[in-house]
Design goal:
Elements (H helix, E strand, L loop, with lengths): L21 E9 L6 E5 L7 E2 L2 E3 L7 H13 L1 E14 L10 H5 L3 H4 L6 E13 L11 E4 L1 H10 L3 H9 L6
Helix pairs in contact: 4-5
Length: about 180
Amino acid sequence: MERSMEVRVGREHQVYSANGARVVAGCVCLDREKKRVLMISSSANRSKWILPKGGVESDELDFRETAKRETWEEAGCIGEVGVSLGIVHDMRPPKEWSDRKMFENATSDAEVNKHPPRSEFHFYEMIVEEVADNFPEEAKRDRKWFTYSDAKQNLLNAKRPELLEALNRSSIIKD
């Protein structure tokens, strides 16, 4: 993989699934002992910790390559991308529900979840070989190693159950 310091931006080449979900690829980045996972701060809120991932673009046919590219751009990680962790759907309410009125007026879980997935995540496990000092998004993200229990708590705090599902599918040692 080429280590470009350029970040792909914009959504004009973004891939969407048949049901309108944004197609995203990312990595669960584990240390060699599989005891810790490398997480990054959210670009929207630096106090929230998430997994590196990003949109698949129309010229990217191999989601593994997208996952590697996004992991490099966001976390500065290089490593061996191994097993697919499958597809995880982001079932959070649509962003237009951000005013919460529609969400708060829902009468059941079924009503809240009747919308199609917001994103379709394709996650892969990566065994980290190198964490670079300089990487494309170093100025806007922090990164840190976490044990499973701390990573789980951070993903719950960030309200990212779909990312927790990817972590749970990985081979990290659950302490």
